[in-house]
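Page header: ASSEMBLY MODEL / two components / 700 residues total.
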Amino acid sequence: MEKMPKWADVVLIPLISLLLATILSALVILAIGEDPVAAVNLMVTGALGSTYGWGYTLYYATNFIFTGLAVSVAFHARLFNIGGEGQAMLGGLGVAMVCLYVPWPHWSIALLAASAGAMLFGAAWAAIPAYLQAKRGSHIVITTIMFNFIAAAFLNYMLVNVMRPQGSQDPATARFPEAVHLPTFQSMFSTAENVMFRGAPANISFFVAILACLVVWALIWRTRLGYEIRAYGHSETGAVYAGISPVRITIVTMLISGALAGMMAINNVMGEAERLVLNSTEGAGFIGIAVALMGRSHPFGVFLAAILFGFLYQGGAELALWTSIPRELIVVIQALVILFTGALDNMVRMPLEKLFLMLRRGSA
Amino acid sequence: MDMFLTLIQVLDSTVRLATPLLLACLAGLYSERAGIFDIGLEGKMLMAAFFSAAIAAVTGSVWLGLLAGIASSLVLSGLHGLASITFRGNQLISGVAINFLASGLTVLIAQSWFKQGGRTPSLFGGGRFESAEFPYAIGPEDAELTGQPVSELMSDANSFHMVYSELLSGHSILVYVAFLMVPATWWVLYRTRFGLRLRAVGENPAAVDTAGVSVVGLRFAAVAICGVLCGIAGAYLATALQAGFVKEMTAGRGFIALAALIFAKWRPWHAMGACLLFGLLQAIALRFQNIDLGGVVIPVQVMDALPYILTVVILAGFVGKAIPPRAGGEPYVKER
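Prediction written out in full:
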C-alpha cells in the first residue's frame, strides 16, 4: 500500500519545500535589512508586470527548460548529470560553427541545422563520461564535474586562440550573419500600433523548448526506450533480468541528456547574443538541477519550475537594479530550493507520511 | 644560477598554492573515508574565506578571523550532515546546494556589511597571517640591514641557503599546519581506534553498527573534521594567500581538491603528492602564460584543464584504478 496519495507526492511535497525555501529567503532579505514584501512586489512587477518583463522571464525559462529536461532524463535512469553546464557550453560551440561557417539562406533552415549542431556537440561532451560510467565504472558525477571545467578551458582556448576575429580583443566569435537571426517575440507578436516585448530577448526557441517537453514526455512514457530507461532507474538488477543492457541505457540516456543541455545554445547563443561569448551559459546548466528536482523530473513540472526560475532570474535582476540587494540573492534561493526539494526531501516527506497514515487510520 | 632561482621560486609558489588544496583534500578524505561524499568542499572554503576575512577586517585579529571561518564552515558541514546522515538525503545534491548557498550568501552578506560590491576591505597588519621567517633565512630584515633588495641578496646566496630562505622559510603558519596535517591524518586513520572505525564505517557501516559503535556519531565526527579543515583552507585563502575576500575567490579549488583526492585514491600521503602536483600546475600557469616546448606551444588553458583531465584518466582506470570507499554515498539505514 502506498504511504501517501500520489497527489501529495507530486504536488504537496514540492509546494511545502518551496514554501520553506521562500520563508528562509524572506528571512535572508530581512537579515540584510530590506523589506521582503516590497522585494516580492518589485520582482513581480519587474518580471511579470509588462511584456518586456515577460520577454526576459520566458527567455531565461527557455534555457532552464532545456537544462532541466537534460537533468530529468538522466534522473529517470538514476544518473546524476551535473555536467549540463559543460554540455551547454559545447552546444554553443556547435551552434557557432553552424552559424558562422555555412551561409544559410533562411533562419528556419539554420535553426534546424544549429539544433543538430548543438545536440551533436552536447551529446559528444556527455559521451565520454557516459562511456566511462558504463564501461569502467567511473562515477558519473565526478567525471561530469571534471568535464565542466575541461569544457570551460577548451572554450576559452577556442575563443581566444581560434575563433576570435582578427583585430578583436574580446574573447568572442564574430557576430552571426543577419540571415540566421531568430525571430524574437517582438517581431512575432507586435502589431503596427502596439509594440510588444520591446527589446526583450525571448525568441522562437521558447516554442522549441515546449516541443522538447512534449518529445521528452513521449520518449519517457510512451516508447520502449523510455520504459527501459525507467526500469533501469528503478532497479538495475531487475532491468538486467529483463534483458535490458545497462551499458546501452547508460550511454543512450546520457547522450539524450547531453543533447538536451546542448540545445540550450539555440536560445542563448543563436537567439540572444548572436555570437559565442565566454561564459555564455551563466550557470544555467546548474539551475537545471534545481528545475528538475522541483519539477519532479516530469516535463510538465520542469516547464513550470523553469518559468518559476525564469521569474526569479528576471525579478532578481530588477531587484539588483532598483535596490541594494545584489543578484546573488537568486543563487541563495536556488540553493534553498535544491536543498529542500533535493537533499532534505525526507525532512518534509517523513512527517507528511506519518500524517497521512494517521488520517487513514482515523477514517478506517 | 638564475634558472635555479626561478625553479625555486616556482616551487615556492607551488607550496603556497598547494596549501588550500591540501587542506581541502584532507578534509574530503576524512568525510569520504567515512562514507559521506562531499562535493561541497568548494562552498565550505568560500564561506570560511568570507567569514575569516570579514571578522579579521572588523576586529583586526586574524586569529578571531580563523575561528569565525572554521565556525562558518562547520555550520555548512552540520547542514550536510543533517541532510545526508540524519535525513538520509542525496549527498551529492546536498553538496551542490551547499556550494550555491555559499556562493550566494557570501556576496549577499559582504554587500550588506561592507558595501564594496561583494568584497571585504583589504586586510593589513594583524588582520593577516604574517609569514614565519626562519632563523638565518634571507628576509626583509636583512634587506633593511644591508640596504640591498631581497631579490639581490637571494641571487648572491649559495643554493642551499636559497632553498632554505625561499622555499622552506617565509610561509604563513597555516602552510606548515597543512603539511603537518598529512602525517597527523595518516596517524589518526591508520594508528588509532577512531581511525579504524572511521575507515570501517565507510566500507561496511552495518559491521560497525553490529560492533556497537554509533554509525551516525562517527559520520558526524568525520563531517565535523572536514568542516574544520575546510575552514582553515578558506581562512588561508583570504587572510594569508590574499589580503581579503573577493567574490568566488575559491575559483574551483574545492573541485581540484576533490580531483586530487581521487587522484590520491583516498590516501593521505598520496593526497599531498597530488596536491603538490596540481599546485605546481597552477604555479606554472601563473608564472608562464603559454609554454614553448621546442616549437610546440602549450597554451595556458591546457595547464588549467590538466588536473581535471588527469583525474578523468585515473578514474577511467587506465593508470591504476581508483576505487572509492565502498559505502560512500549510501545513507545508512539501521536494520530492524
